[in-house]
Specification:
Helix content: under 10%
Low-confidence stretches: 7-12, 40-45, 68-74, 147-170
Strand content: 35-45%
Radius of gyration: 27 Å
Structural class: mainly beta
Shape: globular
Number of strands: 31
Number of helices: 1
Length: 468
């Protein structure tokens, strides 16, 4: 029997894959990672998946040095069929003029028109827009009497809120309603709502029911005290009913008016009430007055329980359905030690304000300026919210939008409406018709503009969940 060779004294030689497999596997992993990086480019921003599809933003203002005076309440956008309207105050002229951008092709192109030209000694402020079923266009704004030398109001500059100074003694600021029956080409009906004027320049607000009745609210001076007053017109602005005082407290300051009108004529008027607050401008409580027929308002009531004492609720935006579903977003401070820390809050009532579910915080750490957020109701009860915010993977603020299909129980992720990301994007406004919406916003950071100039943009969006 032949002797076998003894290998015990020789070094063991492992198979090739056993020796080099880990190195090859690591190399293949690195190649795969590099391929993914080249294809996926995760450092580039990707718009969140959303049913809201946006067209490219269109610049509406044709010239530089457009510095609008801001309005937080009623939208400055209106839609009727394929017609889209956006209005703003233009301070290239002194005093300012009121401009309107009109589109007849669903917001693809716009033409600029003048609602009211400048007049010596008069200031124009706080425009808002509505259209009726016939396509007539209504523009509500404030103007001061000719003896006014200085005007100021609460505004946003660089996403920072500034509380305006008091008006000069003797200043009277009136609400004015203008109507155009030819798409903004001419404005033959321009009428002062003389009984509803504001000595403190809080923006007037308006809403319309399905019959074309227009409801207006503004701050008035009653017995030497600021009060919220309301009126309405049933003949397209030709005349107005006597105004009704809807706030009742004898003392205090009221700010931040908001209004919602359902198709059947239910009306909700909300405001920030500073009666129990200190002199700090961020303090306030959300109060409201409600009416089923737009005439007999319920007594004012504190609607939403504050998170802190003293309360720090400001800038409500409200939406209302015929069934009495009342949705409210507002700015609220929820940290006692940080007065500069505010969040966007949402509260909902299924009982026309009789009872609200506990308020919830929306999009924590993403909304840069809760005071500028707006809420509207669209088709099939969908809610749409627009605001200015910063997405965590972006680092720069922009105009954002979110959708709720269930009456505000939950919202989709915020998605940008434009590719313009800059700390100077401000104050979006929204209008909805069917599955189409238009959002306007302002931007200081136009590359062709001069330092300090501000431009107006509009974006058309389609909700693909509501097609057909």
């Amino acid at each position: 029997m032949a002797e076998g060779r003894d290998y015990s004294h020789e070094a063991y030689q492992a198979p090739f894959l056993e020796r080099y497999g880990p190195m090859l596997g690591g190399g293949l992993l690195l190649v795969g990672l590099a391929s993914w990086l080249l294809m996926a480019k995760p450092w580039e921003y990707r718009r969140p998946t959303s049913a809201l599809k946006a067209d490219p933003a269109i610049r509406l203002s044709k010239a530089e040095s457009v510095v609008p005076v801001f309005s937080r309440q009623t939208s400055r956008v209106a839609i009727h069929g394929s017609a889209v309207y956006v209005t703003w105050v233009d301070t290239r002229t002194d005093p300012p003029s009121l401009l309107l951008a009109t589109s007849t092709d669903s917001g693809k192109t716009f033409a600029e028109r003048v609602v009211e030209a400048p007049e010596a000694g008069r200031q124009l402020l706080d425009p808002s827009l509505l259209t009726d079923a016939q396509g007539s266009l209504y523009c509500l704004y404030t103007y001061s009497k000719a003896d006014t030398k200085r005007l100021s109001t609460t505004s946003i500059q660089g996403n920072q809120r500034t509380e305006g100074a008091s008006l000069n003694s003797g200043t009277q600021v009136f609400s004015r309603l203008a109507r155009s029956d030819d798409g903004g080409v001419s404005w033959p009906v321009i009428r002062d709502v003389a009984s509803v004027y504001s000595p403190v320049l809080s923006s007037p607000v308006m809403g319309m029911d399905s019959k074309g009745t227009i409801y207006l609210a503004a701050l008035g001076l009653t017995g030497g005290q600021e009060q919220v007053v309301a009126t309405r017109t049933v003949n397209r602005g030709d005349s107005f009913e006597p105004d009704v005082q809807v706030s009742m407290a004898p003392k205090g300051r009221r700010r931040d008016l908001a209004i919602a009108v359902s198709p059947a004529g239910r009306v909700a008027i909300l405001w920030s009430d500073l009666r129990n607050a200190t002199d700090l401008p961020e303090n306030g409580e959300i109060f409201g007055a409600l009416a089923n027929a737009g005439k007999d308002f319920s007594p004012e009531v504190q609607l939403i329980k504050p998170a802190l004492k003293p309360p720090r609720q400001r800038y409500p935006s409200v939406s209302l359905t015929d069934a009495g579903e009342l949705s409210v977003i507002f700015e609220e401070g929820i940290e006692k030690e940080r007065r500069d820390r505010t969040v966007l809050r949402y509260a909902h009532s299924r009982t026309f304000g009789a009872e609200f579910a506990p308020a919830q915080t929306l999009f924590a750490k993403q909304v840069d300026n809760p005071s500028a957020a707006q809420l509207v109701t669209g088709r099939e009860g969908y809610l749409y919210l627009t605001c200015v915010g910063t997405l965590t993977d972006l680092g720069q603020p922009t105009a954002l939008v979110a959708q709720s299909k269930n009456g505000g129980k939950s919202f989709s992720a915020l998605t940008p409406v434009t590719d313009r990301f800059a700390p100077t994007v401000q104050n979006p406004a929204i209008a909805v018709q069917g599955n189409t919406m238009v959002i306007s916003f302002f931007d200081f950071n136009d590359p062709k503009g001069k330092p300090g100039t501000q431009e107006v943009y509009a974006v058309r969006l389609v909700d693909e969940d509501l097609r057909g």
